[in-house]
Structure formats: C-alpha cells, structure tokens
Automatic annotation (TrEMBL):
Record region (Disordered): 163-187
Coiled-coil regions listed in the entry: none
PROSITE patterns: TBC_RABGAP
GO molecular function: GTPase activator activity
Protein name (record): Rab-GAP TBC domain-containing protein
C-alpha cells in the first residue's frame, strides 16, 4: 500500500498530523479491500480517499462509508483487464475526433492517439489535476450535472455499484413551480433521447475532454508522445472548475447531437457509458495498458486545467 506517497495536501496530511493521517488511510483502504475482494487495493485509491479525511476528521466509519460510495462510481476503473478504462480512453478519442478534428489528428500523428496520457485524469476523476480546495467542488458539480442530464433523458446517473456501503436513498421532491417546469422542459429538449440498453449518464470523459481542449494550444505544440506525457504530468491547474464542468456539459450535448445526425436518430452506447469499443480510435493493447496503469501515477504532479468556451472546440 502506497499511503506514504500521498501528497501533503490538506491539514491532516501535513506536519505532525501526517503519520496519523496515513494510518487512517491504511485502515480505511484495508477495510475496503476486505469488503470488496474482487477489487482489493489498487494504486491511486489513496488519492481518492485522502480528501474524505478532511470531511470526516475524527470518524473513520463515516469516512469509510463515503469512500465506499465514491468507489461505487469509479469501481470499474480498478477491475482487472481495465476494460472500462479502455472504453473511456476510446470515447475520449471519439469525442475529440468529432469536436476538434485538428487536435485529434495532431495527437494521432505524433503517436498519442491512444490517449493513454489522459489515463490518470480518468482513473482519479482529475483528483491530481485540480487544487485540493477544488476537488469536491469539481466532483459534486459533475455529479449534479450527471443527475440533471439523467433526469432530462430518462436514464439514471452514474450509479453506485458493488462495494458501495452508502446507498442513494430516493427522497420525495416538492412539486416544481410553473416557471421551474418550463425551464425543465426546455432543458429536456436539449438532451439526447434515451438509448435502449444504455447504462447511465456518464459525464467524466467529457470533463477530461474539456480539460484537454482548455489546453489545446499547448497540446498542438507538442511534437511527440513523450512531450504530451510530460505536459500531462504537469497539467496547469484550473482557474474555475465549475466553468470546466459547464464546458463538459456543452460538449456532451453537442456530441449527442452529432451522434444522432450520424446514426439517423439513434445514439452510440458510448455516449451513455454502455459501449466497449470506439469507432476509429486506436486503443492500447492490454499489456501496454497495464504498463500504463503501473506508470500513470507518478509522485504528485502539479496538474490542472483552464476551461475556455470557444466554438471551435465544440461548445455551443
């Protein structure tokens, strides 16, 4: 377990408090590994768990329950074979190929068309790419937008899976006021219709796509895969993570419209987290992907993103 390598972010992982904080991480992650033996412990889980220590500074049980709930959303990232990570990388390439063909072609030409350089961003939900204070702002904004898109499209948001100790309870909501009903109806008209067999609304790939488009000029200046990886490992931190999710939502809606036009009114399962491959995107083979997993989590980089909303990059 690599708890000792966790960054010094947060009050409970700095100075004299750090040894106790690391011990708490070990206890929580060990308990999770015993609870979910299929996944166990994987590199990167410390990054996902560490922010929860700040939320529950004295209660390991609550921190554990919250971590299980978080893992319910991202558990597939850590399953053997990494099929879901390959799906996400493939969808990322498909999204950028549709919405910014020039950038996608450039990355393919220089050998970065597998998008493995974005592996850490997808695996850890941009945990290392944003400032510590913005982690929950980013995650909760993304989850809220997924729920809104799901409600408008008739599909569930990314739901907690096996290993999630915190169940999402459905609570009765007050009836919408007339103005709210009108706004909801207008929003529904923007959202792609449900796809038969789709699993959930999944916005995380679009958040990473928005992050990459926010650094479009820098990526276009990279002349090799090595330069892209180096840039990704030192990604500039975002100035506004809410704006980043705003951009991701616009990309989601635009990509959905393009998918409908291409498919004669139906949507690709990739858009809603239900596909296993991508169209025309080079995917890394399983062994290189496993090697990427082992090497995609360097000691804490200084990453992040700035979102811009240029129409050329897919916003509308």
């Amino acid at each position: 377990m690599d708890a000792e390598r966790i960054s010094h972010d947060g009050q409970l992982l700095q100075g004299a408090s750090r040894p106790a904080g690391i011990d708490r991480l070990r206890r929580i992650l060990t308990a999770y590994a015993l609870t979910d033996s299929e996944v166990g412990y994987c590199q990167g889980m410390t990054d996902l768990c560490a922010p929860l220590l700040e939320v529950y500074p004295r209660d390991d049980q609550q921190a554990f329950d919250a971590f299980c709930g978080l893992m319910g959303r991202v558990r597939a990232n850590f399953l053997g074979g990494m099929a879901d990570m390959r799906r996400q990388l493939g969808l990322l390439g498909e999204v950028l190929g549709r919405l910014d063909a020039r950038l996608h072609r450039h990355l393919v030409v220089i050998g970065a068309g597998s998008y493995v350089f974005a592996f850490q961003m997808l695996l850890l939900q941009l945990r290392r790419e944003v400032a510590w204070a913005d982690v929950f702002v980013l995650w909760e904004t993304m989850w809220a937008r997924e729920a809104r898109l799901a409600a408008a499209s008739g599909l569930p948001p990314a739901a907690a899976g096996r290993g999630a100790a915190v169940a999402e309870t459905s609570q009765a909501q007050p009836p919408l006021q007339p103005q709210q009903q009108q706004q909801h109806q207008q929003y529904q008209e923007l959202v792609p219709p449900p796809l038969q067999g789709a699993v959930r609304v999944d916005l995380r790939v679009f958040v990473v796509a928005a992050a990459l488009l926010g650094q479009r000029a820098a990526l276009l200046s990279c002349a090799s895969m090595e330069e892209v990886v180096q840039f990704a490992n030192h990604f500039p931190q975002p100035t506004n993570v809410v704006a980043l999710v705003d951009q991701a939502e616009r990309l989601f809606l635009k990509f959905g419209r393009l998918q409908r036009q291409r498919n004669g009114g139906s949507l690709s399962g990739c858009l809603r987290g239900g596909c296993t491959s991508s169209n025309g995107v080079e995917l890394a083979a399983e062994e290189p992907m496993a090697a990427a997993f082992a090497g995609a989590l360097p000691a804490q980089a200084q990453p992040g993103v700035t979102a811009d909303g240029g129409d050329e990059h897919g916003a509308s």
